[in-house]
Write a structure and sequence with these properties.
Oligomer: homodimer
Domain Acyl-CoA oxidase/dehydrogenase middle (chains A, B): 161-269
Cofactor (chains A, B): FAD
Strand order of the largest sheet of chain A: 4-5-11-7-6
Shape of chain A: globular
Domain Acyl-CoA dehydrogenase/oxidase N-terminal (chains A, B): 43-155
Domain Acyl-CoA dehydrogenase/oxidase C-terminal (chains A, B): 281-445
Number of helices of chain A: 19
Mean pLDDT of chain A: 97
EC number (chains A, B): 1.3.99.41
Number of strands of chain A: 11
Order of helices and strands of chain A: HHEEHHHHEEEEEEEEEHHHHHHHHHHHHH
Largest sheet of chain A: 5 strands, mixed, barrel
Chain lengths: 590, 590
């Protein structure tokens, strides 16, 4: 069975040596000193290793069941969820007004990572609740907040997000679920929603569904969509539970992975719903929490890669097979460990350099979200909006690829379920799809974010990269700054191509959107590695004696710059071929 | 449920317009005229669509069972297998002396593709039998051949390949299974083998295991390995079945995919075995059939991508979601079909251009195998030996990637098992691992094949590419020849880098082996597309009126050249960074 250990040292390095949180002016960051973050992450890591990781395979094998209208989670999930609630882990960054601890989102992210690495399907129950909490917190009336949030903060009640219907996912304008206004100000919700993660289960007293629906008589299409709270069990004015609402589970889906999470078809048959925010402004309410939700999915991508990598590494050090061509490394044994072989190294280094770079990017994103929400820093908001599709799309694509590569280290043992490597790949696969399929992320990036606010955020990004290169002009940083400069230039050239050719035919830009997203992902990770290497050198210069760790950071970064950034020239070349070959066939010619 | 239709037109185009089989001097090819190959492939396609494809999901869902020592295949498999036997499909390219039809291997390949696309797990029972047949046919005594081959040709008895043991896969020198010589010339085989595909089942009277084992007292390591026939049920001199041999199934594995094929732990407890070929020359006996077996796995890679692509295409034409940014294409409907969107196109074109190129490469490989086996063409043998690791490694890596991309077209529907797209990806995943994991293919290519016979085969390959470019110097072929020339030059530069830097440190070559394999894969597919485009133009010039099909070939090829060949510059850049960053960490620093 796979094991998991929280990468506490890496997290601490990021928070304190790279992001230097205690030096930031963000309200709440002053509490995040080394001792505090270390204690919190260590404790989260313990729960991840001891409680959640052992349930990961159980969740996969057993899955959820649906019998007589009742959804049951796999054995052990309920107890583990109780531990999460009791430990206050669900309330970490929630508003103290509703019982939360008010910690920064960055701290929540650092805690979330071990939980997701250890058991992604399990963590989704809390993750979805947090998403619903955020939407209600941002948009609902004080009355609704007071009624629902305190129990959602503690996960006594969990939450869901209901967007997709059988005939529409991305194109929510086609939505058919309807909301009929009632005399008491509530609405009757009728329709079917599918792919509802954590849609129902046996770990909480109530489930609070957030449902997108169209108010009868409202505008056509996406402009007529509103957001509603629909509780599974009605809540009276004293906060006590009453009757069942007219919402039920139609079935649960058989899926490729995340078997421990119940993916439900939800049927709303005139269920009582409460409007969140304004009528017909449902999409806006959903979008305000999009950056946070998508960053969370990006985290899932690299967190699964991290868990898979840890196990691939153990196997590579343990499994004896073949000999080092430059001379036996384990001459007294029957063979050398796999890790002596250059192609196994290449594979492991790709995993390691991706995961550490991805973690840095995600934490930086969380930091920017804090700057916006706690300091009203609009530049930070613009930047994280630009980075969000990259974090979601690139990190989940690569996270899956890396989980697949980790599986490959095991040979045939990676394909059988016994070793657990298949599950990492199967679970990671969903992150490329939900919360906006990655093609949609690319479209969001190229079609919206690049030009947002007159292109000022992407220009700020390029300026930031330039400044970072300027700041480290010493010889030893050249492997970083040279590669980053080059990749950044190529990314700018791609943006220029879109501007010059997208005018006459938008397909010239859209045909290259996926490549651009990946290219920008590499530039972002290149930037992260430049920062991390500079931080590592600066620690070494200051006499930090953990030289093995710090030198490994620098060398891992050098690997990424040398071996991964060359992808940018490939993406640029593809982009510059435009739409001609992409759109060359008629639909019938396929 | 996914559907499948054999790409008969594409296969005919390859056989007759590109490979021009009837014009080749290979014995047996004269029978392969258009009518004959069309009739055979059509018929195979019918079985694939009507019999095998409907059982694909059944096999996945139900899987094989192991109870009271008996392995059972999923419902319907046995009847389908009977149909395969009765139709003579298992005997197509087998030696007429043992009841085969003596058709070329190329013809067998063209028939195999639809079978594998429709149901990979099912086809493995026959595929493994064919592999065992080939090894016995090439190396066993006439007596053993007469005893075992006729029933293996008809698949009344199926076959297996037993190499892997719990502690050794790639490094077979560590093998522990032992063979003790008996007075009657037979051997007693004792040991445990794992990951034995089609190791046991209920579809044939007998299973003929080919087992690698070490004769007691023989040389240490890989040089002491011999090959044995070990029948599940003993066969007497009249060919009648007798008692059970001392071989049994320990368990069957739970796997990520190919659930319809029983992957067995096989226990040999002093089982009677018969030596195949010479003592201690077991590896050589296995290697002679390696090109064929690995080509068959490469075929599995792209055949799964083909099946996944067909369904992604249907979905992309059918599913209405969003609007074409350049103007509605389905103005009377609620939305346009997915296929109008540039990023969906990009995705589909990547799948289509890969699969068609991969098919061409595989058929060319099969053609070269025929040239060697039927004409004793040693140059063809050298070339296919060089191409084999590329066909196996590149086509299975990309085949899996493309199946994953096909799944992505479906959004959330691709992740739930109901639509069958998950199965294509899960099944395709094994092809990257078995028959030599792809890292081993890369090692075989760079460590052995490049330098084989003084490098003459790789030089012949480059000459062939050059000649192909020379042969098509007209303007309209420039998108092909320019890109191919460029990619081929980059591949040569990579080879040069290995020569210059691999001497002082072999890790400089081995660290780039995986990149080289992919780079060579792209050059091979570029060569295939150049040939196919030239053939299409030549057909158009000759007045062939199927212009939609022929123009689509050309445009699909242009897509591949423009959008896929740029990967070569990335791989070259990676390769030229050598071993430094790959091998930079100590094992403890990971």
């Amino acid at each position: 069975m796979p094991s998991y250990t929280a990468p506490t040292k890496d997290i601490q390095f990021l928070l304190h040596d790279v992001l230097k949180v205690s030096e930031q002016s963000v309200p709440g960051y002053d509490e995040m000193d080394r001792d505090f973050t270390s204690a919190v992450v260590e404790e989260a890591g313990k729960i991840a290793s001891d409680v959640l990781a052992p349930l990961n395979a159980v969740g996969d094998t057993e899955g959820c069941t649906f019998e007589n209208g009742v959804v049951r989670t796999p054995k052990g999930f309920k107890d583990a969820f109780e531990q999460m609630k009791e430990g206050g882990w669900t309330a970490l960054d929630c508003d103290p007004e509703y019982g939360g601890q008010g910690l920064p989102y960055l701290m929540m992210t650092a805690v979330n990572e071990p939980f997701v690495s250890a058991n992604m399907a399990f963590n989704m129950y809390q993750g979805l609740t947090h998403g619903a909490y955020s939407a209600i917190h941002a948009h609902a009336s004080d009355e609704l907040k007071a009624k629902f949030l305190p129990k959602m903060v503690t996960c006594e009640w969990t939450g869901t997000m209901n967007l997709t219907e059988p005939h529409c996912g991305t194109d929510l304008g086609l939505m058919r679920t309807k909301a009929e206004p009632q005399a008491d100000g509530s609405f009757k919700i009728t329709g079917q929603k599918i792919f509802i993660s954590a849609g129902d289960h046996d770990m909480s007293e109530n489930v609070i569904h957030l449902v997108l629906a169209k108010i009868v008589g409202g505008p056509e299409g996406i402009k007529g969509v509103s957001l509603f709270i629909v509780p599974k069990i009605m809540v009276d004015d004293n906060g006590d539970l009453g009757e069942r609402n007219a919402v039920s589970v139609g079935k649960i889906e058989e899926k490729m992975g995340i078997h421990g999470n119940a993916t439900c078809v939800m049927n709303y048959d005139g269920a009582v719903g409460y409007l969140v925010g304004e009528e017909h402004k449902g999409m806006r309410a959903m979008f305000t929490m999009m950056n946070e939700a998508r960053l969370g999915v990006g985290l899932q991508g690299y967190a699964q890669a991290e868990a898979a990598y840890q196990n691939a590494l153990i196997y590579a050090k343990d499994r004896l097979q073949g000999r080092d061509v430059t001379g036996a490394k384990n001459p007294d044994g029957p063979a050398d460990p796999l890790i002596v072989h250059p192609d196994i190294r290449r594979n492991l280094m790709e995993q390691k350099s991706f995961v550490e770079g991805a973690r840095a990017l995600t934490y930086w994103g969380a930091n920017l979200i804090d700057k916006h929400s706690r300091e009203h820093d609009e530049a930070a908001h613009g930047l994280v909006s630009l980075l969000t599709p990259v974090i979601k799309g690139f990190l989940t694509d690569k996270g899956f690829d890396m989980a697949v590569q980790a599986q490959q280290v095991y040979g045939g043992h990676g394909y059988i379920e016994e070793w657990g490597m298949s599950q990492f790949a199967r679970d990671a696969r969903i992150a490329m799809i939900y919360e906006g399929a990655n093609g949609i992320q690319a479209l969001d990036l190229v079609g919206r974010k690049l030009a947002q606010d007159g292109g000022k955020h992407v220009m700020a990004f390029f300026e930031m990269v330039k400044a970072e290169c300027k700041a480290h002009e010493d010889e030893r940083m050249k492997p970083f700054t040279d590669a980053l400069k080059n990749a950044s230039k190529q990314l700018q050239a791609a943006g220029m191509y879109f501007m010059q050719n997208g005018m006459k035919n938008p397909n010239n830009a859209l045909s290259g959107s996926y490549d651009f997203m990946h290219m920008m992902g590499h530039v972002c990770l290149g930037l992260m590695w430049t920062r991390m290497a500079a931080a590592a050198y600066s620690e070494l210069d200051a006499g930090n004696t953990d030289t093995d760790f710090l030198n490994a950071k620098i060398k891992t970064g050098e690997f990424y710059m040398a071996r991964s950034l060359p992808a940018c020239s490939m993406h640029l070349a593809r982009i510059e071929t435009g739409a001609d070959t992409v759109m060359g066939l008629t639909a019938d010619q396929f």
